[in-house]
Amino acid sequence: MPAKKRFKTDYPGVYFIEGQAVASGKPERIFYVMYRRDGRLIEEKVGRQFQDNMTAAKAARIRAERIEGRSPSNNARREAEEAAKQAEAGRWTLAKLWAEYSSHKTPGAALTTDRSRFEKYLKPAFGEKEPAEVLTLDLDRLRSRLLKQGKSPQTVKHVLALFKRLVRFGVKKGLCDSPAPRRQTISMPRVDNETTEDLDADELARLVQAIKDEPNIQAANFMRLAMFTGMRRGELFKLEWRDIDFERGFIHIRHPKGGKSQKIPLNDAARAVLASHPHVADSPYVFPGQGGKQRVTIQVASNRIKARAGLPADFRPLHGLRHLFASTLASSGEVDMLTLQKLLTHKSPNMTKRYSHLRDDALKQASEVAGNLLGNVGTPGDSTGRKVVSLGKER
Fold first, then answer.
1. 20 membership: H or E segment, kind and range
2. 28-68: per-residue pLDDT in tens?
3. At 126, which helix (H) or strand (E)?
4. DSSP string, 309-351
5. 160 φ, ψ to 5°?
6. Does the predicted TM-score (pTM) go above 0.70?
7. Which secondary structure element, helix H or strand E, spans residue 94, and what is its range?
8. Which one is the CATH code of 7-79: 3.30.160, 1.10.1660, 3.40.50, 2.60.40?
9. Which CATH homologous superfamily contains domain 201-358?
């Protein structure tokens, strides 16, 4: 194809060729400039008459800027843009770290929850930043903002802990540098983990009746099993029929919150619930969700049962049943803390300590009974007729 004719302008080193406007197809001038830099002759396009509103005078000003080095040449600009793209591709922002981090995780409720925390809280604040660009002040502002929005200290702690995990993952995989401690320190909000939820006898009776009146048998038995075993909501969501060992009397809990898989005893009350519970065809789950897949929520039914029972507003239907199970055992005085820790599948005994005061109260009451019985023996007011057992002669 022959070269197009060049037309000179009144400005040195500026010329144009005739072309067609992209939008209208009408004739349009396309301006070029020529100049030398570092001994090399450079010839490059600077713009179109209509599309770029280019004129010969404007082209001359651009030529002067490029000769003086105040404006980069087209090639230099393209090289800079390419370098910027490559630099951006090499930047491990928090959003890219999350994508990589999540790809290494097993799909499930925990990952779904983390994804929600990232999308809601971390991505809007720090998604386009590299970990080292996030300062202590940024994290403090995020913590303060979430608390002011009414998020619980526990929720805020989970969000900041996820940020910490993402940074640690990036450093471990060699994707980013570890932020300098003097520039980035994470202050966790104080969380009151000593709260235990309990029901008095009347409230418990109303709850049992409300569960009995619940028309959704899946929801009713879900609540019953939570009450009789103390299992976590997520553990019940994941529970499969193969996890129930009726013969040996155990329930296998796969991947519990505490870490490795464990098993807990299948007591008579839980056995009765499971023995009568209907199986859903083509689903391995005891309490399946839609389409026989793993359930992800039971909130509507559990809140309905809570409302029917008239329970306190701050009682959490499922987590509260776990606390109810634990506090009932602890206050009986018949279960030691180590056994309770194993039944609750707590990884650390520190989590179980919140119930120790209930066991202490039960032991104190038992001690008082013994003290009253033995302390009154042989006194003038003692009419029990109990035998006094000789402890032997004093030595």
1. strand 14-20
2. 999 999 998 877 888 999 999 998 999 999 999 999 988 88
3. helix 123-126
4. HT--TT--HHHHHHHHHHHHHHHHT-S-HHHHHHHTT-SSHHH
5. -65, -35
6. no
7. helix 94-103
8. 3.30.160
9. Intergrase catalytic core (1.10.443.10)
